[in-house]
Design brief:
Radius of gyration: 24 Å
Strand order of the largest sheet: 4-5-8-9-13-14-15-16
Strand content: 5-15%
Largest sheet: 8 strands, parallel, barrel
Number of strands: 17
Structural class: alpha/beta
Bound molecules: iron/sulfur cluster
Helix content: 25-40%
Length: 529
């Protein structure tokens, strides 16, 4: 496979001068002095480490992910529909309609109206800017919203005494905004903690002061195998974060660095988080301690690490009786990750789920606790959700209880927010306005329904939250119901491995799902013999 992205990537804003690049290096076959084009090598000669990251000038206004083909993704499976009977509902054509499919689930002990939730969105600018839409949208859809890492530490108004957080306006706002439209039954607000958050006592603060009862420990994410990173556009903020214990690059206390920043030679500092050093014993003790502090449900989020790390994670989660583990496959991404790491490092989602399922088989054989699983990493639609859940049924019901998403809900909210802004300014694309209307109450198809459900409260719903609700509930939810009804399954826990077939030998080899040309041969023969 030619490495066509080695020397030119849209994420970093680099390009090649010639179309017939060298497949090994990714360079133009002839490279000349008079080339005005900035390829990866060319731009790196000027900007060095900046070119490891998505365009810095787009930070806070964009999301990014890998565009590498990992030779196996959800499109390599086909959903097998049925024509016989109806499971999970009476075999009555008047009742067995797709709208009657029950797609509710329970993930980590939390009931969800839809089997998707929003994964940890933390201190990164894009999550901050769209928080109200994201949180309210998740609450309207009856699902969970995880508040990601470093929120208190990055909050300039946070009160921190003796290294421990006593108050954070941003954290309080994030929790309360979700609860404004939470029905108190479906979904919940979750606070995620990394090494920095644990040092700062964010877990204790959230449990004791904000009445949060779900804490998620973070071991990693699919986009990178190093800690969370953001760009900091102000020297004062960089200095504050250094004082709070964060790693800032370059060092904002260095006078030479300060001078270069003021001269505009670079425009943002990198803020990094430390990675944890998990151990089985210490993890179990930590989870016991969290329960003593009042946590009712405990989640663990990890990345796309090597198979032995997947097994270690499952062992720790099982021993500590964690309620939910989210595995985040390589290929996804969100706000700021080194692009080469995002492309080349970690186990892609389908391969990762296959490894997790093997671990579950081994745990089940020993009669050990199996935590609920959420898969993440590049999910955008209901067919992918269906396949990931169906594949995970190892007997009783699917082990994957929900799909965690980050980039796609941000996109739904960003798009909604942008088009509302364009509508206010009378600048909507003509083709859109002609078809869907020029006012938000017209172009958001769910607006009349929400207005009738919430009455006067409808005016308090941020318009971009309607975008997320519509995406989660109306699009993904309805799409999933259609697919399930097509397979004659009216309850989510009835989905099974027999509902999908592999389209390639690789898909079969990795997941154990038979190929579409061989599946159910015995059934065909027994029906006709
Ligand atoms: S510097 Fe050389 S390799 Fe890079 S775009 Fe120009 S010609 Fe191609």
């Amino acid at each position: 496979m030619p490495d066509i992205r080695a020397n030119a990537r849209s994420t970093t804003g680099t390009a090649l001068r010639l179309p017939d690049m060298s497949p090994t290096s990714g360079m133009c076959p002839i490279c000349v002095r008079e080339c005005p084009v900035l390829c990866e090598i060319g731009l790196s000669a000027f900007r060095g480490r900046e070119v490891l990251y998505p365009k810095p000038q787009e930070f806070g206004r964009s999301t990014q992910a890998s565009n590498k083909d990992y030779l196996l993704d959800w499109s390599h499976f086909q959903i097998l529909s049925d024509v016989i009977g109806a499971r999970g509902i009476g075999p009555d054509s008047d009742k067995a309609v797709f709208e009657a499919v029950d797609i509710s689930t329970s993930a980590g002990g939390v009931p969800l109206k839809v089997p998707v939730f929003t994964a940890g969105l933390g201190s990164t600018q894009v999550a901050n800017d769209y928080w109200d839409g994201l949180a309210v949208g998740a609450a309207l859809a009856g699902t969970m919203q995880v508040i990601g890492e470093n929120v208190c530490g990055m909050d300039p108004k946070a009160k921190i005494q003796d290294g421990k957080v006593k108050h954070s306006e941003d954290m309080q706002h994030r929790v309360n905004k979700y609860r404004e439209f939470w029905d108190g039954k479906h979904g919940s607000i979750v606070v995620q903690t990394n090494v920095e958050d644990q040092r700062m006592g964010v877990d204790v603060y959230a449990l004791s002061k904000l009445e949060v009862d779900i804490i998620e420990r973070k071991w990693g994410q699919g986009a990178k195998a190093i800690g969370g990173e953001v760009r900091v556009p102000s020297l004062d903020q960089a200095l504050m974060l250094k004082r709070r214990g964060y790693i800032l690059i370059p060092d904002p206390e260095d006078p030479v660095v300060q001078e270069a920043f003021k001269a505009g030679i670079f425009k943002t500092f990198e803020r990094h988080s430390r990675v944890g050093m998990p151990g089985q014993r210490s993890f179990i003790e930590d989870i016991e301690w969290l329960r003593e502090q009042g946590a009712k449900h405990i989640f663990l989020k990890t990345g796309a690490h090597r198979p032995a790390a997947v097994a270690f994670t499952m062992k720790c989660a099982s021993e500590a009786k964690v309620d939910l583990v989210t595995f985040d496959g390589a290929g996804g991404g969100t706000a700021m990750s080194p692009v080469p790491m995002m492309q080349e490092c970690g186990t892609p989602t389908v391969y990762l789920e296959a490894q997790v399922l093997r671990c579950i088989e081994l745990l089940k054989q020993k009669g050990k606790h199996v935590p609920d699983i959420a898969m993440a990493g590049g999910f955008v639609n209901e067919t992918q959700i269906f396949k990931a859940i169906a594949m995970s049924n190892l007997g009783d019901s699917p082990c994957v209880k929900a799909i965690a998403m980050a980039r796609s809900p941000i996109t739904a909210v960003m798009k909604a927010s942008y088009f509302v802004e364009l509508a206010k300014e009378g600048r909507l694309p003509r083709a859109f306005a002609d078809v869907y209307g020029a006012k938000p109450e017209r172009f958001f198809i769910a607006a009349p329904k929400l207005s009738s459900s919430y009455g006067e409260g409808f005016k308090r719903i941020p318009l971009d939250a309607i975008g997320l609700y519509t995406y989660y509930f109306e699009r993904l939810g309805t799409g999933l119901k259609q697919l399930m009804a097509g397979c004659r399954k009216w309850k989510l826990d009835l989905l099974g491995r027999g509902d999908i077939a592999s389209l390639s030998e690789r898909a079969k080899e990795v997941t154990g799902i038979s190929t579409v040309d061989k599946i159910e041969r015995d059934a065909m023969e027994s029906i006709l013999s």
